[in-house]
Amino acid sequence: MQAVSERLFSRKEVSQHCEPHSCWVVVNNTVYDLTEFIYKHPAGEDMILEHAGLDCTSVFQDVGHSKNARNLLAKYKIGLLTEEERTSTVQT
């Protein structure tokens, strides 16, 4: 049985999803579609929209999100950055 390969996105593709109707972010080289979560975010939609289309790994880590928040984020995963565009420093 062969593993299903992850969908890959470039940073340019992610950057095109920076609006409330299509909001993607990158955290730790993983691409998330937060469109349906924007208005559920406890800190408000502005926090997510400010980083829409961007790599917000450091912001996500700096806030100190809980394990529950990390588990919730996982539900919105749509793929990974392409190999050549990944950062070598993945934060936990």
UniProtKB/TrEMBL annotation:
Domain Cytochrome b5 heme-binding: residue ranges: 6-82
A GO molecular-function descriptor: metal ion binding
Ranges that cross the membrane: none
Similarity comment text for this entry: Belongs to the cytochrome b5 family.
PANTHER family: CYTOCHROME B5
Compartments reported by the entry: Membrane
The species this protein was found in: Bugula neritina
GO cellular component: membrane
Protein name as it appears in the record: Cytochrome b5 heme-binding domain-containing protein
Keyword Repressor set for record: no
Domain of life (superkingdom): Eukaryota
Annotated keywords: Heme, Iron, Membrane, Metal-binding, Transmembrane
